[in-house]
Amino acid sequence: MLDHPLVPGDTSAVEKGPWHYGADYVTVYFEADVSKLSRLVPRPFEVETRSCMAYVCEIVSVSDSAAEMVSTSPERTLYYEAAVGVNCRFRDKIGIFFPVMWVTTEWSLLRGLINGYQKRLADRISLTKLHPLNPGLGSITAGTKFAGFCVKGIETTLSVKVEVQKRGVPSDLPTFGSTFGLRRFPRTDASQESVDEPVEILKSNSRVSDVWIGKGTVQTSLDIGSPVSLSGAIYKSGFTISGSRVLGR
Amino acid sequence: MLDHPLVPGDTSAVEKGPWHYGADYVTVYFEADVSKLSRLVPRPFEVETRSCMAYVCEIVSVSDSAAEMVSTSPERTLYYEAAVGVNCRFRDKIGIFFPVMWVTTEWSLLRGLINGYQKRLADRISLTKLHPLNPGLGSITAGTKFAGFCVKGIETTLSVKVEVQKRGVPSDLPTFGSTFGLRRFPRTDASQESVDEPVEILKSNSRVSDVWIGKGTVQTSLDIGSPVSLSGAIYKSGFTISGSRVLGR
Amino acid sequence: MLDHPLVPGDTSAVEKGPWHYGADYVTVYFEADVSKLSRLVPRPFEVETRSCMAYVCEIVSVSDSAAEMVSTSPERTLYYEAAVGVNCRFRDKIGIFFPVMWVTTEWSLLRGLINGYQKRLADRISLTKLHPLNPGLGSITAGTKFAGFCVKGIETTLSVKVEVQKRGVPSDLPTFGSTFGLRRFPRTDASQESVDEPVEILKSNSRVSDVWIGKGTVQTSLDIGSPVSLSGAIYKSGFTISGSRVLGR
Amino acid sequence: MLDHPLVPGDTSAVEKGPWHYGADYVTVYFEADVSKLSRLVPRPFEVETRSCMAYVCEIVSVSDSAAEMVSTSPERTLYYEAAVGVNCRFRDKIGIFFPVMWVTTEWSLLRGLINGYQKRLADRISLTKLHPLNPGLGSITAGTKFAGFCVKGIETTLSVKVEVQKRGVPSDLPTFGSTFGLRRFPRTDASQESVDEPVEILKSNSRVSDVWIGKGTVQTSLDIGSPVSLSGAIYKSGFTISGSRVLGR
């Protein structure tokens, strides 16, 4: 029997979790007006501080049950992602909520939606990639510039730029606490049931490496006003997501 | 506030319904082994006959509340679709269930999923299009050939070919009764709620025109065995979908 | 033997000509500063007047020798095109030169380049399409709005909008004379030969139908200053291109 | 003035050379019937041995004059490539000719064509990518599997699979001598000039690293019969191309 596209399984758009991720990030940290940010963060989450982040990244991802797909279906294991995140809280729990997270594949779109991410499909996401053997490109050094963008329709929904200044360590990167989300599946008729639940993404196995920190700029189609206190970083990160836990009803 | 991607609204991936459709179809009708078909149709639906259809089409679709998007966001009003449908029943109600329906845009994917269609994102869907002023192409006549295909990853998931033999009328086309679907939104953790409900798509305003009928062939990555009793048709069709009604729990 | 990608043949990217076209256009006519336009038109062409056009269209195209490809390879017979054209002259001959013409397929890109069009590959071209059976869309009438755009990288390279006011006839559409182009194939080493020749595209079988005329607006990444005297039209057009004749050396 | 799409320049599809490359390869080496191979290699090249290679790779490429594009236009510096190469000779010179080389971007397509590569645009190229921080993926070790494929239309034009067995060194990789090509720009009318010249690609700065060798398999839409003596490798490679030298007329 074919799996339903949203129900994890071998013939679904989504393999069974947990799902493992390894990503190369170009990230900008910034502050924005709480009044603007409050319009990007739905209840029951509340904007906590002015702190935000925006990133563009390339992700290699596999299901725990099907890591061999990197070679049997490589197109099911690589995608690009771009997102803006806002520091907020749910009751006493501090975290980050991503008002929108653009991705380039069906399976990352649908996997994200069932876990509570507000995912959208991008037309195109692109970011700086260097190569150690390219004779025209040097190694990363102070002054090396990175950038990434996301296009959807006629809009550049996100553009980030980072000029690195020095090597860093994982603890140099700002942290935002838990990762929040909203699982929603709406009615299209009164006879139907629906789902509407705030969640915390269940992340584990987090590790970060290859950190460089520096200056950053960000532009987005989301209304964040004029971002200030900007900084930037590039780094690799890995983690595992097993699902998401409901925070309350 | 930004809408959730799945919750119909101005900033969602899905506009508020009802949704109107106008499509150009290349369709093949065929029969297949009930034992094969039964593995494509999940409970509570039961395969009724050996009758099936498969089509590739181009669709112009607008929300009732935002028909102006054909000019303000034309990329949100045109998509391609390919599907295989199986005649089946739910209790006494006869209908058609589509084990999978491939589409080319985010909004048709997500709109379909909330209405109960088992939609997947195609990499590419293409079908024969003629043009009345192209000096190298004549008008449709007996013997004109049409075709369409859908590619996803390395698979041609569906390929249909129709050679028309004569003009037809809408009543020449086989009918399948209601359109069935399954609305599912799974748990990724025991704390979550889920949705799992068989539905009937709420279709109205159906009209068909420009019918030509003839011979057809079909190939698909779905296991339908060796299709027999093949025929084909091309036609235009329009309809409205307002949502989907739960059939039972 | 495999054909070279640029040399017309069965296994080339380009089939043998002549090539037939049938297209649905959304076109804006406008005037711009001759000083701006002169920077878009290379020698030996000279800007003749302030008259320009910009369009977005969908094209069904077949080679004279392989019209059956509409059903055997439909993806090789449909593409989208967006372009800006400038009225100019070569000696006594009046015509139009397109500084850039964006298209969505390999074969239209390469076919155009060997005929002398300055073609580029777009990431996405989209334009208004209506459908006669869509219950949410009426027939074309005074006030119906059409639009089209072309995106490449992070740029919307062209956006046209037309609001039709009344039916027209083919003779209502401005004409520009011949279609000019530049066939160029450069050296990448002194040992190589090169081609650099101004040409006139050899067009025949021109026919136009379904004309509606009205108001128009245009925005483009090309520097055309502030366009004035804007009007717009939608129409169908068909023609044949057999190659291009060298105008002089 | 806008550059012609094929003439290297700031506003062309092709930046001025030399061009630098850094790539990650999944490569299969094999032997095939000389009679089959001879139908893939045009005069004046002659098939020398039964030796062939096929690869899928990801390439970071920059122009020597615009290496900053990795951050200003990252979409202009990354592409995917898939190709089959045949060992052959031109008079006394031994080399490799690629009957077709599929790529994913306009600029790699057109840059290749002016240098003499028989490039075609792919719909999709995908290959195995690992990530050092992905918790579900280990490091490369004996038995790690890599794969890559290229899809164009409904065809998987190339599929390669490599299972690595041990670390290697650059000298473990078969060599093929010079890289041959054919620069062709055809006439579409008798009045036009044309280019038709065999060339040797001017490559320098070659370096290879991160070699693993093992078993390999290949499938392609090119008629290579039944490949034998298969082996595989993965590796990184960097090089510079400055253009191509004409071999004779």
Strand order of the largest sheet of chain A: 1-2-3-4-9-10-11
Low-confidence stretches of chain A: none
Helical element count of chain A? Answer: 3
How many strand units of chain A? 11
Q: What portion of residues of chain A belong to β-strands?
A: over 45%
Q: What would you report as the Rg of chain A, rounded to the nearest angstrom?
A: 18 Å
Dominant shape of chain A: globular
End-to-end separation of chain A: 34 Å
SSE pattern of chain A, N- to C-terminal:
EHEHEEHEEEEEEE
What does this structure look like?
The structure is a homotetramer of 249-residue chains. By secondary structure, chain A is mainly beta. Chain A has helices at residues 34-38, 69-72, 106-115; strands at 19-31, 46-63, 78-90, 93-103, 119-121, 124-127, 145-152, 155-167, 178-185, 195-220, 228-246. In chain A, a hairpin with a 2-residue loop joins strand 7 (145-152) and strand 8 (155-167). The model of chain A has no long low-confidence stretch (mean pLDDT 97). At the A-C interface, loops of A face loops of C.
List the helices and strands and how they pair.
4 copies of one chain form a homotetramer.
Chain A: E1 19-31, H1 34-38, E2 46-63, H2 69-72, E3 78-90, E4 93-103, H3 106-115, E5 119-121, E6 124-127, E7 145-152, E8 155-167, E9 178-185, E10 195-220, E11 228-246
Parallel strand pairs in A: 4-5, 4-9
Antiparallel strand pairs in A: 1-2, 1-11, 2-3, 3-4, 6-7, 7-8, 8-10, 9-10, 10-11
